[in-house]
């Protein structure tokens, strides 16, 4: 099988952080010997993409940059050293585009922590283009029966929250609180938690977000725009506080507050990355309650395969809306305003 690959393609590019995002023609990249070339059909838009464009994280982006790291499409070319993919296979472009595979972190399955990690849509041009390259070792294998638009958000949002739930190390029947529950990550976290046998309380704001969270399986919902004492409300809803908290919210106050309402021996997992934020909690309270505060980064190859399996079996789905690739600036605007339910997915043909 072979594909006719054009010389140029449509892409969204920015040349300086916070500068204009230009929808234009650029050359189609050539895969290196260890890379595949993916014809990207759909790409989810993650909050990380917004940070990459703004440049407000302490890790510099490459410039100019094509963002995006939730790309789903078809392998149309591959380097001479690639044996794990064939032309015509479905493949996913993840946040972790490549790692050295030889350091102490890669050797123990912590490839995202590799000091030489190459990141899609950050240090490596990502999926906001019609053709993108990915290291064959880290690219995700996607079943041919899979809806590529629906699976795109799983490649980052799904894998990230699934890994966070594994990091929380909770038992079936225990309570988990999802802070930022109606967003792209939170809406998937609710479903993964339910599929893992956990009881879910979601925190977010507004009736529309409450309806979404409840429809996805949250037993309780706390509206932060209406609730005066969130700590008390969460603890009452969970009979003493959740056993674990997954913080996908980008509110510094919400993250710190989770250390207050989590029950003794509970785990607070940090996932969302608001720029410059800190976790603030009383040392006395943290010690007496014996809580654990853990950071959870994106998953490795095994986490990715497991997260995709949940999707393939119909146990999770991402609430999403499809818009054209050219509408990326508008998507970022809505994201900054907190007006997006679930995930926005870009159709690269538009």
Automatic annotation (TrEMBL):
Its EC number is 1.1.1.1. It comes from Pichia kudriavzevii. Residues 18-346 form the Enoyl reductase (ER) domain. This is alcohol dehydrogenase. GO terms for molecular function: alcohol dehydrogenase (NAD+) activity; zinc ion binding. InterPro entries: ADH-like_C, ADH-like_N, ADH_Zn_CS, ER, GroES-like_sf, NAD(P)-bd_dom_sf. The keyword NAD applies. PROSITE patterns: ADH_ZINC. Keywords: Metal-binding, NAD, Oxidoreductase, Zinc. One of its GO terms (cellular component) is cytoplasm. Belongs to the zinc-containing alcohol dehydrogenase family.
């Amino acid at each position: 099988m072979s594909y006719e690959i054009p010389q140029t393609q449509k892409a969204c590019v920015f040349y300086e952080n916070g500068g204009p995002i230009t929808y234009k023609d650029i050359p189609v990249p050539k895969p290196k010997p260890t890379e595949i070339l993916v014809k990207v059909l759909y790409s989810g838009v993650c909050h990380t993409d917004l940070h990459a464009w703004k440049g407000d994280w302490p890790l510099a982006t490459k410039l100019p940059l094509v963002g995006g790291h939730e790309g789903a499409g078809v392998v149309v070319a591959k380097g001479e050293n690639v044996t794990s993919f064939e032309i015509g296979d479905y493949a996913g472009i993840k946040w972790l585009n490549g790692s050295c595979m030889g350091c102490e972190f890669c050797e123990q399955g912590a490839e995202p922590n590799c000091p030489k990690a190459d990141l899609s849509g950050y240090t490596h041009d990502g999926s906001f283009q019609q053709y993108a390259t990915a290291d064959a070792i880290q690219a995700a294998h996607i079943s041919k029966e899979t809806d590529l638009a629906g699976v795109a958000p799983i490649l980052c949002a799904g894998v990230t929250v699934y890994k966070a739930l594994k990091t929380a190390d909770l038992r079936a029947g225990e309570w988990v609180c999802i802070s930022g529950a109606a967003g792209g990550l939170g809406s998937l976290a609710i479903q993964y938690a339910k599929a893992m046998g956990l009881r879910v309380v979601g925190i977010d704001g507004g009736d529309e977000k409450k309806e979404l969270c409840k429809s996805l399986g949250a037993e309780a919902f706390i509206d932060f725009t209406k609730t005066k004492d969130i700590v008390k409300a969460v603890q009452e809803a969970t009979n003493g506080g959740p056993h674990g908290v997954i913080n996908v919210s980008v509110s510094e106050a919400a993250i710190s507050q989770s250390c207050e309402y989590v029950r003794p021996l509970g785990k607070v997992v940090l996932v969302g990355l608001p720029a410059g934020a800190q976790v603030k909690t009383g040392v006395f309270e943290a010690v007496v309650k014996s809580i654990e505060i853990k950071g959870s980064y994106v998953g490795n190859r095994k986490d990715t395969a497991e997260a995709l399996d949940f999707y393939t079996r119909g146990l999770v789905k991402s609430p999403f809306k499809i818009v054209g690739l050219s509408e990326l600036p508008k998507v970022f605007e809505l994201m900054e305003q907190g007006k997006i339910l679930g995930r926005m997915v870009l159709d690269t043909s538009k």
